[in-house]
Amino acid sequence: MSINNRETVYHNVIHTFSKTIEFFDISPSEARLFSLLYLENSPMTLDEMSQALGKSKTAVSTGIRTLLELNLVKRVWKKGIRKDLYETNNDLYKRFMQTYINNWIKHAQNQHYLLKEIEKQLTFSNTSEEEAILLNKLATIIDFHQSIEKAFTMIDPKHNRL
Asked: Which one of 66, 79, 104, 139 has the lowest number of neighbouring Cβ atoms within 10 Å?
């Protein structure tokens, strides 16, 4: 395979893989950054990532910070290199599913709490038909959030072996 063709394939893999990563609520720029790091055989500096993606060092630094917070990349140390190096955590399924599931569980729990607070405000002794309908719909929405939390908790890899 020619060098030009190899580069084209490499960039196509980054582009295509990043589309999957975006489904995990990661920005397109961060998804491309993760894809690049995943394909590399060795850790990369911010400068190397910036050059490879044609992005500013500031943009790459911001993306790396997000990926670090999501525990999708890690900072590594290499003897003789003073710059920070980064590489991906390689267990893709576990890392992405855990992040995605945790986000859904936290969101469902937060919404459930907020909706229960709203429900407390709507509890009346003499409710009109309109208020009763609203309370009924609110109860359905609360049940919906509980079902989301339960479903994501059931598929959580740290609780179940898939």
From this structure: 79
Cβ-count burial of 9 within 10 angstroms (0-12 exposed, 13-18 middle, 19+ buried)? Answer: exposed
| Residue ranges covered by each domain of the chain | 3-88, 92-154
- pTM here is 0.70
- Contact, 8 vs 45, CB < 8 A? no
Per-residue pLDDT of the chain (162 residues), as tens digits, is 677 788 888 889 999 999 989 888 899 999 999 999 999 988 999 999 999 999 999 999 999 999 999 888 999 988 888 899 999 987 887 888 888 888 889 999 999 999 998 888 876 666 678 888 888 899 999 999 999 999 998 888 666 544
Report domain 3-88's class: mainly alpha
C-alpha torsion sign, points 53, 56, 59, 63: positive
Query: How far is residue 25 from each of residues 41, 76, 83, measured CA to CA in Å?
Result: 26, 25, 29
Residues 142, 119 contacting (CB under 8 angstroms): yes
Q: Is 30 exposed, middle or buried (0-12, 13-18, 19+ CB in 10 A)?
A: buried
